User: Which sequence fits this backbone?
């Protein structure tokens, strides 16, 4: 690519990305790490919120995939992308893929730990495809999140590449104070439902477990958060209802 045409500014990337007639570059987000993104890794374990939560302050933490948005077709598309990569890499079959998949909570984890792939080389291949035909803004969800008076955070097993990709498409790129996402540099993969992932987020927030309200669609993640004492809300394509349940639990009237 001509250097004069290279996208170097984050805002220019977002504008270009929004142009659906443009060919999709699967690594468009790879070189960008927004300032409010925190990759869950041992090198970042010392980081803390700039403004610590008050002792009586409730905090809302949201999962991303199938939680703040819901799209079954995207799930199928992602699986197909991971399967194609698996077959190309291993020369094995879909049945073999199913077996490996059953032993791992995450495709990225499977490729890194079982096949010694480098996370920062395959993150965009299997975790950040062209989702422009699958996702768009949901005005009702966006308005609900925007109107919450609570501090809001995102806690996802997606990489920074995937997370930026999706949040931009659904219009929530600036909705969260911090975005906790899977790391693409260190070998150790600290993700939900592993206890260290929840502890990382809790330590960063500097909040008492009873003040954290966690929304996720995965029962394993719900179980992991509950074991740390977080308030949990299992989302099954009913995010708005679960948000109302959480608001009621802390006294109501917490939206603008």
Assistant:
């Amino acid at each position: 690519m001509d250097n004069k045409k290279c996208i170097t500014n984050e805002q220019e990337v977002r504008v270009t990305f929004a142009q659906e007639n443009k060919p999709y570059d699967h690594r468009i987000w790879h070189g960008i790490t927004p300032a409010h993104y925190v990759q869950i890794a041992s090198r970042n374990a010392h980081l803390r919120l700039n403004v610590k939560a008050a002792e009586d302050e409730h905090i809302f933490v949201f999962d991303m995939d199938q939680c703040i948005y819901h799209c079954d077709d995207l799930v199928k598309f992602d699986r197909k992308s991971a399967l194609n990569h698996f077959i190309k890499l291993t020369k094995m079959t879909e049945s073999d893929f199913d077996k490996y998949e059953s032993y791992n909570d995450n495709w990225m984890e499977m490729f890194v730990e079982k096949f010694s792939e480098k996370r920062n080389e395959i993150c965009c291949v299997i975790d950040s495809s062209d989702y422009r035909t699958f996702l768009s803004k949901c005005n009702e969800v966006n308005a609900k999140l925007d109107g919450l008076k609570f501090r809001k955070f995102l806690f996802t097993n997606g990489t920074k590449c995937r997370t930026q990709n999706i949040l931009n498409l659904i219009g929530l790129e600036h909705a969260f104070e911090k975005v906790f996402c899977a790391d693409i540099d260190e070998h150790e993969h600290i993700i939900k439902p592993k206890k260290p992932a929840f502890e990382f987020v809790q330590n960063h927030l500097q909040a008492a477990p009873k003040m954290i309200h966690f929304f996720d669609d995965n029962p394993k993640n719900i179980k992991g958060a509950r074991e740390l004492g977080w308030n949990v809300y299992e989302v099954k394509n009913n995010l708005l209802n679960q948000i109302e349940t959480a608001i009621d639990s802390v006294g109501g009237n917490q939206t603008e």
Observations:
- Confidence is low (pLDDT under 50) at residues 1-8.
- Residues 72-127 form one domain.
- The chain has two domains: 3-71+133-249, 72-127.
